[in-house]
Every structure is written in C-alpha cells, then in structure tokens.
Amino acid sequence: IKNIPVSLDNQYILDQLIDAKLPANKVTTILNRQKQPTLTVAVELENNADGKKIFQLERLCHAIVRVEPRKYGTSIPQCFKCQRFG
After folding, report:
1. Minimal CA–CA distance to 61: which of 35, 24, 34, 33?
2. pTM score
3. CA distances (Å), 28 to each of 11, 33, 42, 45, in order?
4. I want to staple 23 with a disulfide (CB 3.0 to 4.6 A). Which of 30, 46, 49, 72 is the partner?
C-alpha cells in the first residue's frame, strides 16, 4: 500500500485493515537504503477471495492510498557494498 503517512504505527494500520473487513495478518513499513521509513507498507494477507478485496481499497487512515501487488525482481540480487552476487 502506497501513500501511508510515516507517522502511523504498523499496529494502527493493521487495526484499520481489520476494521475494513480485510484478512490482514501483518503490516511492515518499507525502509529505504538509509533505513528511513518510506510512504509504503507491505501487508501480509490470507490468500482467499476476501484478501483480493484489498485491491479495491482507495482510502485508509484518512489518506488516499494506492494498492499494488508486490513486484519480485527477476535478476540475481547484488550487494551494494562489495558488488558480489547472491
């Protein structure tokens, strides 16, 4: 979920998702390379029809949000410090 204010606690966001009748199990704030929180949170849902309703979500915690499926990389991860793969 994108555009969530960084001042909100993960537990508060989880409670709001549960109140919206979404089967959320866990919420994690995504950090950037400097370990600072971003406006994006990852949500772990149950894999059922109710879980797919999250893509219809437009507002959460008094903010206009955009929900996108997780994008997995197709390349081999490379270390930013030592430049090694894997």
Report:
1. 24
2. 0.75
3. 9, 16, 5, 12
4. 46
